[in-house]
Specification:
The chain is built from 15 helices and 13 strands. The chain is an alpha/beta fold. The protein has 3 domains: about 120 residues, Gyrase A, domain 2 (2-Layer Sandwich); about 140 residues, Four Helix Bundle (Hemerythrin (Met), subunit A) (Up-down Bundle); about 160 residues, P-loop containing nucleotide triphosphate hydrolases (Rossmann fold), CATH 3.40.50. The protein is flat and about 85 Å long. The protein starts with 9 loop residues before the first strand and ends in a 6-residue tail after the last helix. The chain binds guanosine-5'-triphosphate (GTP) and magnesium ion. Magnesium ion binds next to helix 8.
Length: about 450
């Protein structure tokens, strides 16, 4: 049996530890107002249990003998609150001493200290949000860029849940038809049914594919675009990294083969976190170290979401450049002609015949770096996903469950073509449903909940 005890009233300090302008002690549960009545003193003697929902009140917190702090108290009544329970929030002065004193007092009045994420867990268990939305709360708290925040908010508003529920309905539909066939086997699956099932399964599979396609963009918003700078030795790769970072991170010298190890840094380009990597120049390696360095460069190019291939504009394109171009994998690429401050031997038009995007810069003089940044952002916003409407999923747990569900549905379609008995096909559809339900939290284990909510901070 699952043990979800929602009968007690929980409390925690909801603001970060340390000194701040204000701090918040939060209470949630059936006794929240009763406890507040005991400790809150207003000027006119009115009590929180008499306050209207979503109202704030000035007063003092007292332990009966002495005043602890001057506060603003907010009441949010069940069921229209974050947890669907009565919530009281006490805004006091932000030092740890007043916060701790108020928390101790609330605990002494019978509240229990909340576990990490327990307020959000209650919001989920009480049916206000589904599990995907609860996890979005964590994404919002942890968001490091505007784009990541936007994605978290979209998920909290139910964007992903809506898409998943749509696919779920489709699967339930198919299951119903299949079950009817299992119950009346003598009729068998006739040709018309077969087409109908196939079409419905295909529709569900397409829905999953759409969500998975969106996940690439979701991951990028959360973890960053992996951009790799590659090119021949001495073309100015390290200089370009430094120009983008606006600091001297990578060693720059006139000697070819300066960079041996890959250097990685994160920059924020228009709200998108970009993990940018400077690699060793690619040329026929002369020794073992160079060989290893070139191997490593190629490996990073393989993992990258975006390639910045750099050319030295002051030198004509040679065999090594062409060789490098030939070996680039099919990925989004921006060709950068560097050293535009020198006399140019490479024509932009020539490279434009090979690459859809060519940008001329001077890394050394930091010229046109803004244009390059715009180009990177543009590619991410426009190029990565075909439809911007797909709900975007960034959470690895969600992505792997959706991918598995998509495989199961593909298998079910295969079985249908091979005239497999309907009970086997139904089993695949049921398994896919379990996976989708696990994202939405329609089915869950205590372990899963513990794992998800333990990542939250106390007080959320
Ligand atoms: N004039 C000019 N020189 C540049 C520019 N960018 C880089 N350089 C010079 O080109 C030389 C090589 O620059 P790096 O940034 O070390 O080149 P790299 O591609 O990282 O070289 P390796 O690590 O050896 O592969 C240095 O002397 C830089 O100062 C530029 O925009 N204009
Ligand atoms: Mg270098």
């Amino acid at each position: 049996m699952l043990k979800h005890d929602n009968s007690d009233t929980i409390t925690a300090i909801s603001t970060p530890a340390g000194v701040g302008g204000i701090g918040i002690v939060r209470l949630s549960g059936k006794d929240a107002l009763k406890v507040a009545d005991k400790i809150f003193c207003s000027k006119d003697g009115s009590k929180p249990s008499g306050f209207k929902t979503f109202t704030t009140h000035y007063g003092w917190i007292s332990d009966g003998d002495k005043m602890i702090d001057e506060v603003i108290l907010t009441v949010m009544r069940a069921p229209r609150s974050f947890t669907k329970e009565d919530i009281v929030e006490i805004n006091c002065h932000g030092g740890i001493i007043p916060l701790r004193a108020i928390l101790d007092l609330v605990l002494a009045c019978g509240c229990r200290l909340a576990e990490p994420g327990e307020f959000t867990k209650r919001a989920f268990l009480n049916g206000r949000i589904d599990l995907a939305q609860a996890e979005a709360v964590l994404d919002i708290i942890r968001a490091k860029t505007d784009a990541a925040l936007k994605l978290g908010v979209e998920q909290l508003k139910g964007g992903l849940s809506k898409e998943l529920n749509k696919a779920r309905e489709m699967l339930l539909d198919i299951l119903m038809l299949l079950e009817a066939n299992i119950d009346f086997p003598e009729e068998g699956i006739n040709k018309i049914d077969l087409q109908e099932y196939n079409a419905k399964l295909k529709e569900a599979e397409e829905e999953f594919k759409k969500i998975i396609a969106g996940s690439a963009r979701g991951r990028i918003y959360r973890e960053g675009v992996r951009a790799v700078i590659c090119g021949k030795p001495n073309v100015g790769k390290s200089s370009l990294l430094n120009a983008l970072l606006k600091c001297e991170r990578s060693i720059v010298t006139p000697v070819a083969g300066t960079t041996r190890d890959t250097i990685e840094e994160i920059i924020d380009i228009k709200g998108i976190p970009v993990r940018i990597m400077d690699t060793a120049g690619i040329l026929e390696p002369r020794g073992l170290v160079e060989k290893k360095a070139v191997e490593r460069s190629r490996k990073h190019i393989g993992f990258a979401d975006l390639i910045l291939v750099i050319f030295d504009g002051s030198r004509a394109l040679d065999k090594a450049d062409l060789n490098l171009i030939k070996k680039l994998p099919k990925k989004p690429v921006i060709a950068v002609i560097n050293k535009m401050d020198l006399r140019q031997k490479i024509k932009k038009e020539k490279l434009s015949q090979i690459f859809p995007r060519v940008i001329e810069v001077s890394a050394k003089k930091t010229k046109n770096i803004g244009i390059l940044e715009d180009g990177i952002a543009d590619l991410v916003y426009k190029g990565e996903v075909s439809s911007g409407e797909a709900a975007m999923v960034s959470n690895l747990r969600h992505i792997s469950a959706i991918k598995e569900a998509q495989i199961l549905i593909a298998e079910a379609r295969n079985s249908l073509d091979n005239k497999t008995p309907p009970e086997f096909i139904a089993q695949d559809v049921k398994d896919a449903l379990v996976l989708i339900d696990s994202i939405l939290g329609k089915r869950f284990s205590e372990d899963l909940l513990d794992k998800i909510f333990s990542e939250f901070c106390i007080g959320k």
